[in-house]
């Protein structure tokens, strides 16, 4: 309905509307418009903004009084999208919280989490799409055949002796409604629960605990966490509620979708992730918003899906850093899921074999140094009483050194022999190397030239398959030069090893073995990952080489050996979370072996290391996550690091490093007074000097960052809110000097 045609003499309502506006624009809150009727909060409307007409969300009544624009200067709302219910109040509150906590503009946050196509269409276009969706949800009954066609069909279907009766058309059965369970396809019976699963389910289904708590399901790899999710979901669905299940990465969505579809064949299941087409994403989102979808599976953006009858939120692999958005509005989907559960009073289940230390800290009782906010549900045993693989450490320092000019083999001889034994027995092996490409760099032995990126402070990676040097930061790619660009030497050699080279070397070392590879390079095209995984499950691969994308969530039944080829780099990284991530990666990778109880007894996890006595490997050998977590927490407490403190990172990008650091220095000076005042109140705020980022230049843009630390989270958020107006003004002043963009990252994962 158009607001331009208000009834004569009628009073136009003043409404606040959120429109998409980036943070640096300074437009933090909603804009006021006039409407011919008081549209409820959450209504999607089209409004004029400058010379454009854009989509907005009605936020509530507009502000009246002193300091507000007079009505005659306000523009009218153009139209509202028909037949689309307003976004619920809980959704609006979730967006408000996310915008305030992560220091983003309200309109930016609200528009960012809506389907892209919904933000671009008008009422007429929306009407066409809604009509098509209605046909999917409520297909019309098939037309009865004409008498002539019915007679012909009947005559062909009956013996000649009964031809006299063939003219009587058979009755047509009515189809089932697409909006409800399909006939004859009720939920499949659940598997028999193990004692540990039954204990966890009993706690999760205990509705006497109110409000429903957040539960940390800490189960070893292969303990059946997914089965607990499914049985919990089954109980929630039986009450007529909806279920939101989240996974960290797109490549884990298809297999979870297959399991959920098999268990809940009579339910409407939709997925939400960036791999969908815009039309698919819009359709799935609308089905969830209308309450037509029973189960929503998705990646981090799915946490914002409006669900009118939400009853359960599951966050699988909750420790995974992929739940944290790394650009734009840098939100944590896991943390927002916990907040949403609290907001809507629904249970939240965080599942992991290696919980993040923040979640582990929240699941420990206050008496043991934690916060007691989460309920810990342990499941330490594998289904079928299968054992975890035996961990074997190979001390690379004790192996024979290669001759001068020769390269060390990809795998130590004992490990290579163990892989060969698996091949002879018809079993599979997984070799983990978290570095794609053929080699990290090409090197000239005469003049020392290396394949640096001209646009980034990083090396270009050699990819042998297409003979290119490719920067993994900016994407710049060139053909491999025939000779050294500096001195003309034709003998330029690869240095280091990536998954592509490891695959080639294993094929040479294991003649006749079927060696496969799964990484981002070979799974770029649609359907490629599913095809590769299917070949592994079908036993068509003897040795699988892969990056971290195959180390978690996959149920490989034939793999009995997992090896980490070069895991030492993370042991001495500058990021204080590096050890936590490496332990999680190695333990998750070990969990890919021996998942079939019949072969679990001789499954192994091999680790090639120069530091076999490192405490991380000692904890891995014993699969003692609890001891590892406690040791890490002690270190962090002594150093004043999260979860014992709270961090924010102010990042700046500019044409020169000096311009980026100048802005950050000025930003620090602008908040010194506010920080001192908050420190007098016990805020414990500390401002660190501005420094270049680890990769200082990307795509010819210089990057710098400044860390802000606080002992009290409210003090940190208050400081950021007070400083933002000054930072906006400083950004405008520094743009002529080369500042390009700036952003605040609350609870940063990349330090």
């Amino acid at each position: 309905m158009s607001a331009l045609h208000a009834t004569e003499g009628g009073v136009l309502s003043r409404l606040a509307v959120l429109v998409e506006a980036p943070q640096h624009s300074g437009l933090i809150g909603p804009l006021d418009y006039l409407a011919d009727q008081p549209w409820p909060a959450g209504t999607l409307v089209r409004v004029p903004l400058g010379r454009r007409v854009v989509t907005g969300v009605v936020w509530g009544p507009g502000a009246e009084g002193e300091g507000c624009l007079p009505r005659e200067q306000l523009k009218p709302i153009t139209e509202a999208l028909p037949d689309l219910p307003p976004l619920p109040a809980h959704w609006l509150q979730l967006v408000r919280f996310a915008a305030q906590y992560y220091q983003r503009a309200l309109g930016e946050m609200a528009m960012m989490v809506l389907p892209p196509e919904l933000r671009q269409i008008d009422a007429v276009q929306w009407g066409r799409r809604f009509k098509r969706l209605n046909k999917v949800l409520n297909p019309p009954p098939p037309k009865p055949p004409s008498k002539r066609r019915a007679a012909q069909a009947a005559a062909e279907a009956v013996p000649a002796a009964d031809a006299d009766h063939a003219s009587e058309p058979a009755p047509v059965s009515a189809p089932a409604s697409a909006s409800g369970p399909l006939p004859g396809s009720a939920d499949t019976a659940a598997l028999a629960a193990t004692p540990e699963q039954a204990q966890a389910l009993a706690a999760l289904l205990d509705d006497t605990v109110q409000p429903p708590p957040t539960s940390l399901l800490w189960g070893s790899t292969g303990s059946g966490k997914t089965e607990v999710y499914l049985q919990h979901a089954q109980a929630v669905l039986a009450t007529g509620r909806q279920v939101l299940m989240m996974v960290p990465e797109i490549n884990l969505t298809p297999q979870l979708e297959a399991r959920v579809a098999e268990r809940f064949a009579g339910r409407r299941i939709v997925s939400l992730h960036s791999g969908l087409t815009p039309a698919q994403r819009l359709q799935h989102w609308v089905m969830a918003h209308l309450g037509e979808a029973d189960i929503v599976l998705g990646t981090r953006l799915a946490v914002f899906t409006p669900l009118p009858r939400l009853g359960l939120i599951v966050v699988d692999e909750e420790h995974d850093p992929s739940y944290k958005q790394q650009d734009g509005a840098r939100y944590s989907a896991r943390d927002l899921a916990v907040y949403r559960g609290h907001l809507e009073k629904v249970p939240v289940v965080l599942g992991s074999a290696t919980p993040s230390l923040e979640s582990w800290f929240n699941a420990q009782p206050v008496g043991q140094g934690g916060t007691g906010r989460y309920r810990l549900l342990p499941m330490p045993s594998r289904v079928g009483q299968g054992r975890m693989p035996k961990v074997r450490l190979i001390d690379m320092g004790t192996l024979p050194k290669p001759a001068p000019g020769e390269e060390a083999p990809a795998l130590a001889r004992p490990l290579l022999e163990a892989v060969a034994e698996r091949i002879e027995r018809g079993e599979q092996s997984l070799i983990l190397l978290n570095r794609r490409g053929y080699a990290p760099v090409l090197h000239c032995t005469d003049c020392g030239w290396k394949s640096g990126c001209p646009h980034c402070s990083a090396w270009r990676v050699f990819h042998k398959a297409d003979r290119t040097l490719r920067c993994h930061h900016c994407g710049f790619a060139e053909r491999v030069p025939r000779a050294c660009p500096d001195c003309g030497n034709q003998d330029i050699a690869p240095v280091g090893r990536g998954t592509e080279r490891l695959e080639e070397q294993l094929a040479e070392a294991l003649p006749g073995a079927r060696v496969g590879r799964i990484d981002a390079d070979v799974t770029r095209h649609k359907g490629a990952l599913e095809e590769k995984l299917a070949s592994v499950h079908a036993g068509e691969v003897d040795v699988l080489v892969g990056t971290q994308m195959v180390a978690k969530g996959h149920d490989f039944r034939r793999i009995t050996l997992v090896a980490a080829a070069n895991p030492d780099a993370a042991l001495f990284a500058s990021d204080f979370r590096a050890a936590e991530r490496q332990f999680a990666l190695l333990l998750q990778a070990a969990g890919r072996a021996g998942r079939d109880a019949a072969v679990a007894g001789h499954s192994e996890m091999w680790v090639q290391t120069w530091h076999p006595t490192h405490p991380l490997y000692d904890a891995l050998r014993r699969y003692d996550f609890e001891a590892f977590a406690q040791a890490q927490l002690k270190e962090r407490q002594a150093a004043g690091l999260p979860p014992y403190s709270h961090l924010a990172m102010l990042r700046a990008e500019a044409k020169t490093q000096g311009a980026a650091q100048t802005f950050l220095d000025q930003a620090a000076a602008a908040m010194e007074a506010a920080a001192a005042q908050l420190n007098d109140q016990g805020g414990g705020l500390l401002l660190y000097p501005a420094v270049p980022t680890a990769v200082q230049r990307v795509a010819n843009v210089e990057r710098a960052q400044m860390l802000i630390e606080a002992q009290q989270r409210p003090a940190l958020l208050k400081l950021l809110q007070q400083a933002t107006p000054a930072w906006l003004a400083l950004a405008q002043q520094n743009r002529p000097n080369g500042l390009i963009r700036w952003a605040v990252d609350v609870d940063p994962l990349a330090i």
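The radius of gyration is 30 Å. Residues 1-9, 157-185 have pLDDT under 50 and may be disordered.
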